[in-house]
Specification:
about 180 residues, binds zinc ion, 2 domains, 4-stranded antiparallel beta sheet, 6 helices
Length: about 180
């Protein structure tokens, strides 16, 4: 049994849902850290639907909370920006924190998102597509990590194992600004 968090509409199976986990728009922003994983979206009101009462027969469920040092995410961002992501995006603007001299930042495409108030803006190479989160900031990186963990567990596993490469970085950056793999 599944129940809508808002209108309490009940669903016997996820077959009755139009959108089923993890195919839920803006999933990363709608999840509570460490919370129960939703089954999908309510067909009446669009709110997340959660399993109630029963458990999955023959299955154990574990929700993990993971923490990564800034440096690990910096490594991942470096994989992206120093790999070949230029086939789908380019940096169009840098935003420096007001307290920081631009000349003191050696690698703005890596360092700025880790500074409070800093970041850079991405656009597609033809200038045709608006990204849903064009500014790469600390918040965007956090969202991108969560999206990658939910939607692309194989790539996230490579990051966890410190086996990330240019492809992992590419996927991560697309998760950050596009919410899914669109290019490549
Ligand atoms: Zn509902």
């Amino acid at each position: 049994m599944f129940e809508c968090d808002n209108c309490s509409k009940q669903f016997v199976s996820t077959d009755e849902l139009e959108r089923v986990f993890p195919d839920i728009p803006d999933l990363a922003q709608r999840l509570d850290p460490g919370g129960i994983v939703p089954a999908g979206e309510c067909t009446d009101c669009g709110t997340l639907v959660y399993p109630v009462g029963v458990t999955m027969p023959g299955m154990f469920h574990v929700t993990l909370s993971l923490w990564y040092a800034d440096q690990r995410v910096k490594d991942l961002l470096t994989c992206a920006t120093e790999g070949d992501v230029r086939y789908w995006c380019k940096i169009v603007e840098f935003r420096y924190p007001t307290t920081v001299e631009a000349s003191s930042v050696q690698f703005p495409h890596i360092e700025l998102p880790f500074m409070k108030g800093g970041g850079f803006k991405l656009a597609d190479v033809e200038g045709e597509q608006e990204f849903i989160r064009p500014w790469v900031t600390r918040d965007t990186l956090a969202t991108g990590l969560q999206v990658m963990a939910v939607k692309y567990p194989k790539h996230f596993h490579d990051f966890q194992m410190e086996n990330e490469d240019a492809e992992t970085g590419d996927v991560f950056l697309q998760c950050c600004v596009l919410d899914e793999i669109v290019f490549g």
